[in-house]
Design goal:
alpha+beta; four-stranded mixed β-sheet; 39% helix; globular
Length: 103
C-alpha cells in the first residue's frame, strides 16, 4: 500500500515533469514544481517514509532528514487542500495522461 493516496476527487498528472493535481469537486488545480512532483510520485509508489527517502536520495543531493521534512511538508500541504485519501483501504490514485517510460 502506498505511503499516501490521493482522494477520489483528486487526479494527478505528471506527464510534463511538473505536476498538476485537479480537484474535481471544486474544479480547481494545484500546480507542483518539479521537486514536489518527484516527491509525490515517490510517495505514491513507496510504502514507507524510509523507502521513499531512500528512493529520493537517488535523485536529490540532500540528507535523509531534509527529504523526510520535504515529504512531510508536501503531505501537510495536500492535507490543507483536502487532496489526500482519508481511508487507508482506498483505491490507488487516479492519473490521466501518458506515463513516460523509465519511471
Amino acid at each position: 500500500m502506498p505511503l499516501i493516496g490521493l482522494a477520489r476527487h483528486a487526479v494527478f498528472d505528471d506527464t510534463d515533469g511538473a505536476g498538476v493535481i485537479l480537484d474535481t469537486r471544486r474544479g480547481v488545480y494545484l500546480s507542483l514544481n518539479d521537486t514536489a512532483t518527484r516527491m509525490l510520485r515517490t510517495a505514491l509508489a513507496c510504502d514507507s517514509v524510509a523507502a521513499a527517502v531512500a528512493r529520493l536520495r537517488e535523485d536529490f543531493d540532500a540528507d535523509e532528514e531534509t527529504l523526510a521534512a520535504g515529504l512531510a511538508g508536501l503531505t501537510a500541504r495536500l492535507c490543507e487542500h483536502a487532496l489526500l485519501e482519508q481511508d487507508a483501504d482506498a483505491a490507488a490514485p487516479r492519473r490521466w495522461g501518458r506515463r513516460r517510460e523509465g519511471r
